[in-house]
Known about the structure:
The protein has 344 residues and is of the alpha+beta class. Helix content is 31%, strand content 28%.
Amino acid sequence: MISKTIHYRYCKTRNVKKTLQQLLTEGYFKFDNFKLANNRKQILSSLSDEFMLINSLSLKQNNEYLFGQLVYVEPGKSQPILNIDNKSQTFTMRAFTPNQLEEQLTEAEIENDKKTKSKTKKSQELRKEFTDSILYFLVHGNHIVILQSKALMAKDLERYLIWFCSESGQFTSKSELYLELKPPKETIEKMQQGNAKRLSIGSSLTPRYEKKSKEKNYEQLISKMGIGLEILRQYFIKNKKSKNLIDSLDESNIEVKLEISYKRKTTEKGQQLLDSIATSLRHLDEDEVEIDLTNGVTINGDELRLSKKIGIKYTKSNLIDEVNLFEKMKNWFCEKILSEDVEL
């Protein structure tokens, strides 16, 4: 059993009358064009064929919950396989395409493929692609529990949901949707005792390259650093001083942070501004955010998230046991309701 973390988010919308559960139900089950999985693909770039889609969505427990999977696919990609040999100085590696792995299918799977293809026009024949990543989610009203993966995060699900609702005709140009962080009850109580006074955004900028990296393009270096350096990048490029910044990284570790604060008593409008900024940072890494309160208490990024580690079971086919996962996500969601961390 492998340990993974599930996260809670609350879906906030503007100029939308339906809940997230209603939007997904109507778009997936009632919108004719989305009844075919191929039509639910969101192409992610005009320069490639990579896409995301809600591959499956099912109603659970008398339609009280929705449980689904968002998948990410890069067509034509091969999968490298590492041969682990404890007596070898170097592990050998080989890449397989889906067609090459076809040889490993059981006779029953091959026969099933033949029957399916025989009913399909040649121009629409089945092909296999590696699924690079799967994100699982449970929805109840506007509440959502997410099991992220390395390639698919909450921000990717948020992006897809906006596309999904727009393409299914349920959003207007004025509609908005975002998956809001919901801090634990303990963190909320801390924030109630003191308003947000300062937001700190950034992280340590430890060099991650060799000395010869000075000769590389600055744009390539900057992509490997944290958000703090990205903020500085805009300033240094504008003022043509980026070379000095790179030179300084060769000798020391630098920490760059963007701080937004009020020196005097925060007004109601100023407090709303800070609160709004805190919401807009929901997709940053937890170690890149700090919030200082007026009473001297500091709240770290990990305290802003409602999450829990759970054990993940796998089926004999080496896929996540979705029945078991649904039960664990649902049970944890119900626990958070009882503990008043989540309000229905």
